[in-house]
Amino acid sequence: MKARRCGVTLTAARLGEQIATEALRFVGLREVRPNAAWDNPKTPGPETALTQELRALMRPTPWQPGWAYCAAFREAVVRAAFANLGITAAEGARFFNTMGPGVRVSFRAFAALKLTSAEPARGAIWFARHGTSANGHAGIVTAHGQGLLGTIEDNTSLDSRNTAKDREGDWITSRLFPAKGRGPLVTLGFVTPEAILKLCFP
Q1: In 3D, which of 100, 105, 67, 194 has the Cα closest to residue 141?
Q2: How far is 85 from 60, CA to CA, in rounded Å?
Q3: How far is it, in rounded angstroms, from Cα 99 to Cα 199?
Q4: CA atoms within 13 A on the CB side of 49
């Protein structure tokens, strides 16, 4: 899938790389106020600018400080990637109207448009279901192969053995796990950069 705008060719690979790059910028942040403010404990001083940027990117979802943000974070990094590639608000509107603050609701909305995939790609949104519940979790795919999936996730913990915090933790971090899921988190599918382009440039 390719889209042309202002003489520039947008490819799924280029969009996927931008989404992954934007997600990587926030890795290492830990909540200092639950679901509201973050800091990197490995760097000196507060991460005020990065926290403000993240909050601003998530607010249009609509997301509010204090709310769980695993779906809102997906919107945030896609919004930043769109801006870097010159994709306008009008062009990106169909994505943001489909992707909302709820993981399971968002996945069903993409599935209804036949835009979900069983196969990952770099920069894809990974959607998972938490056991048999109505709850979900999401991440950004950074790598895949040999039955494994690399993601960047938020609202998670550094230790996936802590299943209580695997989707309700206080870190933004990278993860590596079997592509079918981990513990109670079962992979539902993916929305790839190619699908995002199809949605924005029908």
Answers
A1: 194
A2: 19
A3: 11
A4: 2
d(CA 53, CA 30) in angstroms, rounded, equals 15
H/E element, 69: none
pTM for the full model? 0.93
Average pLDDT, the chain: 91
Are 131 and 146 within 8 A, CB to CB?
A: no
Sheet containing 181-182: give its strands across: 37-39, 30-33, 171-178, 148-156, 136-145, 125-130, 185-191, 181-182
Crossing angle (nearest 10°) for helices 103-112 and 70-85: 50
**pLDDT beyond 80 at 64:** yes
Among 17, 16, 87, 77, smallest CA distance to 50 is for 77
Coil, helix or strand at residue 61 = coil
Q: Residues 118, 202, 58, 123: what is their CA dihedral angle, to the nearest 10 degrees? A: 40
Helix 89-98 crosses helix 103-112 at what angle (to 10 degrees)?
A: 110
**Which residue from 97, 182, 98 is spatially nearest to 139, judged by alpha carbons?**
182
Tell me: pLDDT of 124 over 90: yes
8 A C-beta contact, residue 160 and residue 152: no
Give mean pLDDT, residues 82-106. 93
